[in-house]
Amino acid sequence: MGDIMPNQLTVREVARGMNLEVLAGEAGLDHVITNPNLTKPGLELAGLFDFYEHNRIQIIGSKEGVFFKSLSLEDQLTRVRRLFEEQPPAFVFSVNVPVPELFIGLGNEFSIPVMKSPYQTTSLFGELFNFLQSRLAERTFMHGALMDINGVGVVITGQSGIGKSEVALELIRRGYMLVADDMIEIYQKERGVLIGTAPDLLKKYLEVRGIGIVNVVYMFGVRAYRENKKISLIVHLETWDENKQFDRLGLKEETEKIFDTEVVSMSLPITEARNTATLVEAAAFDFKAKIAGYRSAEEFSECLNDKIALNAKNDQVKP
Fold this sequence. Notes:
Blueprint: E1 9-10, H1 11-17, E2 21-24, E3 32-33, E4 38-39, H2 42-45, E5 57-60, H3 62-70, H4 73-85, E6 91-93, H5 101-110, E7 114-116, H6 121-136, E8 139-143, E9 145-149, E10 152-158, H7 164-173, E11 177-180, E12 183-190, E13 193-197, E14 205-208, E15 212-215, H8 216-220, E16 228-230, E17 233-239, E18 254-258, E19 261-270, H9 276-291, H10 296-317
Parallel strand pairs: 4-5, 5-6, 6-7, 10-17, 17-19
Antiparallel strand pairs: 1-3, 2-7, 8-12, 9-10, 9-11, 12-13, 13-16, 14-15, 18-19
Helix pairs in contact: 4-5, 7-9
């Protein structure tokens, strides 16, 4: 796994990603945003600046818009200017709120973008927060392929040349979806939820030795690819080693820690006689069964113990 990398985002990227109309302050579109949280400056419009969170994007919704219009012209001028003087990253108005000329003028004066959203206030708050959280989250990188196998996000790893991409290609042919090949970009959406995606340059592409780089959407259609996926299982492909002991029953569950999240992991020994794609597919289906509450290994172990206990009891009653 690679180093943990902080991410950064400009106001311009937010405007593009959230389809925001820039009305003023275009000179500030390249300012960097570091805080994914949002705030609505209701208290500040009322004149209380003790708790002004000026390092956040400021959302002006219906309540703030109505309250602003109720203020005297003098209060509007002094309080809104104070909002801009603290240099917040941007102001975003929800769809139903008219943008006052005062905000337009001060946005250009202070080079702070004033933007209009196509969303109503509640939707704007949720959509923008999710966008910022995902884009500003720390990233780490892992070599391998990430597949969506019947709803399970499976990372396929292993030493170079072991056949990870070939396994991914066969799984795509069976109707499953590629998320990333060769390099997986991972961020933690929240504790317990890891999201994997491909770096921008590698999206939709798969490298197959002997063929080269292929576009899976062009070859197999749009259903062969998805932008991102929650990571649930890590499968390590290993060359068969007769001296290494593997868990034959599957009673012991291994995990790997990425950020603050433990991810179930397992090792698959492979040989020329074993169909690796089928093994990875089976591992994903078994994981899904365990999530649903069914564990084959434990059921087998219980049946075996019951059989041993029954045989021992029968031996005791024999004359």
